[in-house]
């Protein structure tokens, strides 16, 4: 591909179809409750898109994306919680004006690091900045020491475990195992109504597309090609004059930023944030979303997040005890049979068929770097 | 700084758990010289290149390139100082096209944000085309590197180094695994590209060595056994004993 166009025609079609699905078809066919559920699934898609860049393109498997999702979500939740904890709302507490869980834990004063979260702009910046800072520290510590592959995956998983333990243990500051709940308004706008949830669904969709466009830009830039090069021949990249660690740190931070935005949107749409979204299991689930969708494809990652979560909801409504087994089976099946996930199945099996049926004689080579063609 | 030598390797030693793969090795390379390193398997030839380009950290000694101490530098800094390295097995990016392989080696946009903002302008395209012609791959620019033959991958990697335009080029067995025809072609190519730079080559093929070498260093157990012109080295009884004799 000598042309460095931002998007090929196939990719534009893929984006348009996904946009139609999210902005037109889902709102038209789903009731309010289901639409809100899909909104929740889409917040996971942010993480999956970040993973498609880190893991799919760059070969950096993080099993700790839940940490960044959680950090973004907690930053948002802290702001909303402070707004909900006015002295009037909390008059029955022994210390009115602080979040209820702090009062239950005998705190008599708002901790200093909660103070900035009275301000929405600061909270919004923190939604991105806190996960990125955290990812930067991990990235510098790991990548400049050339920790990679399985070791990196295990260490990120350990971070997910540590973060959960920390949040649960520091109950008075974080709301503990229950998380931060009972969130009510955003600058006076009630986020619990059906109408608000629909609005938030669309905000979420727009943000997801913004993230997808950023991801597309990165993929199409020289940096995107470098990631693929690093995945295959790290030494060659190094001896072509690149500081490999910097590129890994960058893409890891970008994935963390995406996850943070997703987490904040989760908090807004679902109305709480808790350590169950931070730990090892959700972090691995997020990797599965990406794997099922096709880790090489950013659009595939979105479909993966939607499909797996939809299956999770449907299955756990009818067979709650079977879901985890199903999820494990799904992961094994994807890895063994469809290593490039749904996007791979599409571009290798379905698309050539379609073109054949449509009478085009053109032979279809696998798309560049397994790019999606939804 | 001693202007006579572009590269000064002095007392270079690396020890892996007590085993000295390179043992107090010293040699000097002049500008525009083509130095060939030969020696039996395990003599430490590849390790010497690894030490110069920073892939392996030396235990002691010094490597000074154009007045700069390379041992204190990171791999990418050594590359920017003007040292290029070709690996023994062809290392190309199989998932990328020939064009993209060459583009990533083009010496521009090496930082994170430089790479994000990098544009394929005419200068870049023209340079890539020029290099592709030199390495006989101008017809396959849009092909994925994975589909190239073994010999073509070797050429591509050499092309990736040429586009960096290093002052010191280090090649690890550039003709290994090539057919006779390819071998001739690459000898021609190498003879052309070593004209205006210093080169260190590791090679086993004696005919090829005689063809390109300015001077030859024979390594044995991490030490210099003999050094000089091909003729001198070939007639050195020590060399005949350990290496050429069988």
UniProtKB/TrEMBL annotation, chain A:
The chain crosses the membrane at residues 12-30, 42-64, 117-143, 150-169, 199-218, 239-266, 286-310, 322-346. Pfam families: BPD_transp_2 (PF02653). It is found in: Cell membrane. Its main location: membrane. One of its GO terms (cellular component) is plasma membrane. InterPro entries: ABC_transp_permease (IPR001851), ABC_transptr_urea_perm_UrtC (IPR017778), LivM-like (IPR043428). One of its GO terms (molecular function) is branched-chain amino acid transmembrane transporter activity. Keywords: Cell membrane, Membrane, Transmembrane, Transmembrane helix. It is a multi-pass membrane protein. This is Urea ABC transporter permease. It comes from Marivita geojedonensis.
From TrEMBL, chain B:
Keywords: ATP-binding, Nucleotide-binding, Transport. One of its GO terms (cellular component) is plasma membrane. Residues 7-246 form the ABC transporter domain. Signal peptide: none annotated. PANTHER family: CONSERVED COMPONENT OF ABC TRANSPORTER FOR NATURAL AMINO ACIDS-RELATED (PTHR45772), HIGH-AFFINITY BRANCHED-CHAIN AMINO ACID TRANSPORT ATP-BINDING PROTEIN (PTHR45772:SF8). InterPro entries: AAA+_ATPase (IPR003593), ABC_AA/LPS_Transport (IPR051120), ABC_transporter-like_ATP-bd (IPR003439), ABC_transptr_urea_ATP-bd_UrtD (IPR017781), BCA_ABC_TP_C (IPR032823), P-loop_NTPase (IPR027417). Pfam families: ABC_tran (PF00005), BCA_ABC_TP_C (PF12399). Coiled coil: none annotated. It comes from the Bacteria. GO terms for molecular function: ATP binding; ATP hydrolysis activity. This is Urea ABC transporter ATP-binding protein.
